[in-house]
Amino acid sequence: MLYASIRSVGAYVPKKILSNSDLEKIVDTTDDWITKRSGIKNRHIASSEEATSDLAKEASIIAIQRAGLKPQDIDMIIVASISGDYLFMPSTACVLADKLGIKNIPAFDILAACTGFIYALSTAKAYIESGMMKNVLIVGAEALSKFVDYSDRTTCVLFGDGAGAAVISATNDKEEAVVDVHISADGALQDFLITPGGGSKHPFSSFANSEKMQFIKMKGNETFKIAVRTLSNDVEEIIAKNNIKLHDIKFFIPHQANYRIIKAVGDAIGLKDEQLVLTVDRFGNTSAASIPMAMNAIYEEKKLKYKDMMLLDAFGGGLTWGSALLPFCGK
Ligand code: ACO
Question: Which amino acid residue places its CA nearest to atom 7 of ligand 1?
Fold first, then answer.
């Protein structure tokens, strides 16, 4: 029997840091408001020379090396992003494959906003368990600052840039297997989080430009309420379905959108504070990149060990959401 297993994690953030006090000088906001409402203190911002694939490349090199592999050992690349190098083609995964020196393997992008990394994990698991692939590189990478309107205080204080990558490999050892992944979506609430311009609905035009349609728009408060309810139900379900006890979960690694969402979901399901992984203060919301970046943070702090059980969850534009239970099997 073939199983999928997470072999490594790596991450990269651009050098420039944008702090809350920097933002106080740009829009009508305060460090106090941002900290209390979101838990965010800093976020990293890509330079004008850095595209999403550049961040993805740095995270991928680390993940491939930590998996004990060479780029040529990877047989599929999946990039989850809502801020790819190009609007529609080529995919960021194709650009990344070229930057890693990998040819002649499938490479494609997944568009599931903040849930993208869990969608990529689910896809990698399916390909590996069907025997079609052995080593799949999954990457969450975002240069969101390029799609943020820095005159809109309701969004610009939230988002940051970065990338996280993981190698998912085939194993025969059931104890190393990804236990379960659940993904879902509801398009009825598509306008809660939307980048309206540039697609076939509102192609680039002077009107789209004057309406600032190229930027991320969010109904923050409405999204907040649905996120807490949906995520709490989703994680309760995956835990119950797989007969996992709360104390078996070493780390709860949620999408890092807002400290209050993470704490509310953690409290709703009865997790202890030491099980919650929080990086939202340092990185802000990095959408599809936030879960692998948070996983990498505890790996580099030497807290995340072989076979530690991780519970992942995410919620984002689409709307999309998902959760996963998996032991960390990196060295
Ligand atoms: N500084 C100061 N005041 C602000 C700011 C700011 N940066 N932004 C908004 N305000 C004001 C509002 O105008 C409002 O003022 P009013 O009461 O006079 O109208 C007040 O603060 C409260 O605004 P709310 O939007 O109700 O604040 P809330 O407590 O909901 O926090 C936040 C906002 C942080 C955006 C929160 O709603 C949130 O985190 N939402 C969920 C985000 C999320 O999970 N997104 C999904 C993933 S992202 C993705 O998929 C890309």
Answer: 153
Helix extents (H) in the chain:
20-24, 31-38, 52-66, 92-99, 116-129, 153-156, 206-210, 220-241, 259-269, 280-283, 290-300
Q: Sign of the C-alpha dihedral, residues 150, 154, 155, 156?
A: positive
User: pLDDT tens for residues 110-154?
Assistant: 999 999 999 999 999 999 999 999 999 999 999 999 999 999 999
Task: Indicate whether residue 320 lines ligand 1 (CB < 6 A).
Answer: no
The response to whether residue 33 sits with its C-beta less than 6 Å from ligand 1 reads yes
243: its two tokens: 């007969």
3-174: CATH superfamily: Thiolase/Chalcone synthase (3.40.47.10)
Which residue do the tokens 């996992």 mark?
Answer: 244
Instruction: For CATH 3.40.47.10, list the domain ranges present in the chain.
Output: 3-174, 180-327
